Amino acid sequence: MSVHGLRARLTREDVQRLTDTNDPESRAMAARKFCARIAEQGLSDADRTAGEAILGVLADDAAEMVRRALAVTLQRCPHLPEAVARKLAADLDSIALPVIEGSPVLSDEDLIEIIRHAAPNRQVAVAKRISVSKDVVREIVTHGVSEAVGTAAANDGARFDAGSYALTFERFSAEPEVLERFIDRSRLPLEVTERLIAAISDAAIERLVSRHALPPQLAVELAEGARERATVDLVDQAGLSPDPRRFVQQLQLNSRLTPSLILRALFRGHMAFFEYAVAELANVDHAKAWMLIHDAGPLGLDAVFQRTGLPARILPAIRAAISAYHSIELGDGGPADQIRFRRILTERVFTQFQGAPEADLNYCLARLEADEALIETAPAEPVVLKAS
């Protein structure tokens, strides 16, 4: 078989090593280099065809290390021939698992076949993929072992629909450790969050309520101690809620939209919640409240504030917080940056304005101490300060 088209990229010694039947280690090294070239962009059609033929030969090599070199090097390559990908996915675990977990060439049909008939560790490899379609997730939830289902539950790239969520709760109602893996997702539907509260351990509930927004009424109930197994900080939930308008309305309905809650949320940087709270209390729409708070200068803030019925003594603190908020911007916006943002905001508010209520001051300082524990190993100053 000719490799003339690829010879400019491979040395004569590389080509000889590929066909050296007496030295599998040299073949593996040459195969790794060859596969790296195949993975590159810009090969001609003729080179690609010749290369794919050689990959087929390497996939049949008697030496495990050669086949593993092929699998590991090309596990995420879109140019791996489908037939070769399937062959590698059916090989020994050391060869199959990287391909099952990473290859974009494997189809949903291939992955479903693995879920239905392969060993548990291969089901887990499917569940770890960067992207797992709704159909494949449904197969994992239906036929997968608990480890595979838990892995998919924690994987943001695994696309759970309502049916798959429901089936997971049904199958694993007696295995809360599987259901708790949902907490590791970056987002959860509110109805799933509510179901988890009733199904998981107390320690897991603490993680859940600190990471995910609760349905508004449930958040209020837990904050009031209406349920035995958890308590909720409504300030945190103010920042997590994907629907701040509804959350504010629920708080108002339950007489929980207090000046202290509004002030603490603002000091923690939950500006959208503050805007909707002002809009609710002032009986104006959010767009108008936003304009008066941010775009109309101090007179606009004063005007909308007077309509809220909030005590006049907290207006200077609110004005200081909004000014500080606009003087800071996030870096990349990740969790560590958000924590630093809140720290700088709180420090600026209490440096520039000394009249904040003591209880709210103590609350924010206590929360800052908890935040500091989360950023001990982070870089020093990723937050950019804008000119005041």
Automatic annotation (TrEMBL):
Highest taxon above the source species: Bacteria
InterPro entries to which the protein is assigned, alphabetical: DUF2336 (IPR019285), UCP035865 (IPR014598)
A Pfam cross-reference name: DUF2336
Annotated protein name in UniProt: DUF2336 domain-containing protein
Taxonomic source organism: Marinicauda pacifica
